[in-house]
Amino acid sequence: MPQLNTSTWFITIMAMLPALYLIMQLKLLNTTYHFSPSQKVLSMQTTNNSWQLKWTKIYLPHSQPQHS
Amino acid sequence: MNENLFTPFTTPTLLELPVVVPIILFPTLLLPTSKYLINNRLITIQQKLVQLILKQMMVIHNTKGQTWSLMLMSLIIFIASTNFLGLLPYSFTATTQLSMNLAMAIPLWAGTVITGLRFKTKSSLAHFLPQGTPTPLIPALVIIETISLFIQPMALAVRLTANITAGHLLMHLIGSATLALLTISLLATSLTLVLLVMLTILEMAVALIQAYVFTLLVSLYLHDNT
Question: β-pairing, B17-18 with B13-14?
Answer without folding.
Answer: antiparallel
